[in-house]
Amino acid sequence: MADCIPAGMEAFVATDDEQFKVIKKVIDLCDYYILVIGKRYGSINLTTGLSYTEMEYDYAREENIPILVFVIDDSVSLPVEKIETEPEKADKLRLFVEKAKTNRLVSMWKTSAELIGQLAIAIMRAKAEISRPGWQRGVDFDEASLRREIMELQSENQGLKMRLKKADETIESFTAQSSVAFENVKVQIDYYCYSGTANMRFDSSKTVALPELFSVISTEMMDVSTTESRVYDAIREQLFGSTAYYFKDDQLVKRMLNQFRALGLLYSSWSNEKSSLYWGLTPKGQKTRDDMILIRSGG
């Protein structure tokens, strides 16, 4: 009818909650749910106290599946076996009918011929006004495109595996390395300070081995990244015991940080949140720092 494939619920005998799970899966696959209400309420689920038909209706509403409701007219006379005689069920049926009539796609019917005609019109109207996915044959899918996409994903996955392997090998190589070969490099630091009641300026210089500077900087970066100014303070505190000493070359700390970055010991990253450049230890830098501060047994 109307180019539709029916999935009649009468083919599913709802006798327990497990069976109802199957029914819900069938409803999930439907574009429209058609509810025909006669004068019997049907089997009741002991857990919910509702008929399975009403449970189906409620589930379709929850899943926002368009519902076409067809309620038999009260004036229609039916045989006794087709009329609800139990008072409790009759009351539930009345409430169910009232709930179903609130649906905007509801029709009343008196004869089976009238029901068929209204049903055909309602389906065509629903298809025109409410767009639904519909049914597609498996051959409608572009198998070549799907195969190509699978191959691309497989290639991408293989590339990621290779990158991960390369990264692991790089980290392992850093771990396997001993201390960086910069033991003989020394840095001359020209500095000045103010002292005495006259606040006189004193100028001097100090030669410091590069590993000593890296030890100070890397200890300051213990599991955290920091700024250039904090590195400057850490060097002054460690070398002179005070931050009241000033370097004549205001680019000295910046050059040292970039030297350590060139050696693969440090990395830098910009923080948009704090508008600052932060410096931290690379895996190689961590290994070098740990080797420098490691307490070794005498021999």
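[next item in queue]
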Amino acid sequence: MSTDTSTDAPADEAEEAAPRDELREGILARLTDALGDAVVGHHIRPGDDLWVRVTREAWQETGRIARDRLGCRYFNFLSAIDWLPSPYGRSLDAAVDKLVGADTSPAEGEGDEAGGDVTVEAGTGGIVTGYAGGDTRFQLFARVTNVKEHWGVTFKCDLPDDDLRADTWIPNYHGANWHERETWEMFGITFEGHPYLRHLYLPGAFEGHPLRKDFPLLARLVKPWPGIVDVEDMPPLPEEEGEGSADEGDDNGGGS
């Protein structure tokens, strides 16, 4: 099981120094007890939040356990993420990028004019999958909340590149219906058991999945996207009050 804890101190000293979160440690223990080896990663940010990564086979069961055993009756969202760095690089930089001097140029071999495929393997430095880790380019995310006890948990699930499928969460949370439709439409992830996977935003004949990193957003090349703005200089400050008043009086014939 992967965790996001590391230190150079000896193990016993690190355990004493690390802040504890008994609430979320207890939640994690209950999930692990129910799911066993299906819990493959986790991360606790003490006093704040919890992330748990499970196997794809346990994805639907995880939602049921969260609802029935943990009391998470509120469904926040379900979506996905493509961790692949854009093979096209970044054609334009926002003002903040220039301000901090960020290097946004594509890496060597990325994004040739033909838009060739770029293969980046997890764990090689090209893909970083965030809290609770990950072994694949695509991951599912879902968040639920226990509104009575005022805490939530974010679940993650790895999906193999050549088999983007997972069981639907609709039996657990009916609100997942449209979230899964959007995720299917934008990422190309199929939800087994979903009763009506149809487009929400795109025309029915649309080809491709716009939220994949290798989908070319040509509109950004034709016209600067809204995040790119021209920053104008601030107008000059007015002269201090009283400055040049004597000259003004002479020009107006005053002073008599």
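[queue empty]
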